[in-house]
Specification:
mainly beta, five-stranded antiparallel sheet, 5 helices
Length: 396
Amino acid sequence: LRDRNHPSIVIWSLCNEGGCEQNAWYGGVIAAQFKEAISWADTFRPVTGNTEWGVGSADTFTTVVDVAAFSYNYGAYEIWHNYHPWKPVYGGESASCVSDRAYYGPTNHTSGLVNADDQGCVRSSWESAGTNDYVAGNFAWTGFDYKGEPTPMDWPCINSHFGIIDIAGFPKDSYYWYAAWWTMKPDAIFISPRTWTNPVAPGDKLTVVVYTIAPTVELIVNGASLGNKTVDQFAYAEWDNVVYQPGQITANAYDQTGAKVQASMSIATQGTPYSLDMWIEPVGENYNHLQANGQDTALVGVLVRDLQGNALSTPNIQVSWNITGPGLIYGTGNGDPSDHTPDKCGPLSPWNAPCTRALFNGLARVVVQAGLQAGTIVLTASGPGLRTATISIPVG
């Protein structure tokens, strides 16, 4: 009851899936009792419960709740609406689409990595909701990867693959499908695979997907056009059996006339790792300035660049961090679902472990926390054979 007046609470939920007792004669009785108990504390917000089997003849539970919800049963929306056109419905759990950031090889149970080719799953999870006004929307499982539940993997994999964003806070490819269709910006475009540096072995074939809301997209590989594709609502452009050879890949998105390029993206084969680079994620208005309260944190990203300054999306190089000033390294990560490196290091580690982490497909994360004194935190990243990177964070 502590948070019952918080504006973010718009609906109360009785249960999730198995606990809903759907398709049991007593399901509606239990739902009614719990709904009455909620009404003692709050008579304004509606009540729901997320079921998993859709609408059945023995179902009494969904007829009692104010808002129906179904897990992954996208076809149930229309059936429910036909029987109960006055009641709203939404996807209580959807889009459990497994992928790992920037991994395009076959699903590998040794490394614990799954292929990032999940665009069909993402699209199908939203089409029924996005094309029917009576569906309020879907809750995607999940926004971020998390520790545990490594389906469809086993040990040594130790975290999930369901996230739109990996456990270190870096977007996976499906993130850019959501970004295109939710922002509706005509210049939004993204090529998957995100790297043209051995996403597969030279000569092997792969699928290339372009996320955009533009009506048509042209794909050009090493100067040769592979033709135009039409992008339907909530869809993407897709080319199968593209032969990989080093060079450059370009996607041009055209407007309704088919004559004007409204968005373009190119990816070139990358050079040799040369230097490290760091940046602070723009989270909040004062993301690059921490308060001296012992709690405020900055999310710092780390990557490798070649001699021409291009960000490299393939190296898995070991990086070490050193910090000075009024702050400490609160944790590190990289998004690798099978990385057993402790997230805590330095004084926050029981054994004062050094703050080192391997990049995973070109990226790693370090979380910097402010202390109680004003000053400047200086964070330095170093790696074997690479120019170091330094970033300063004011604290006050």
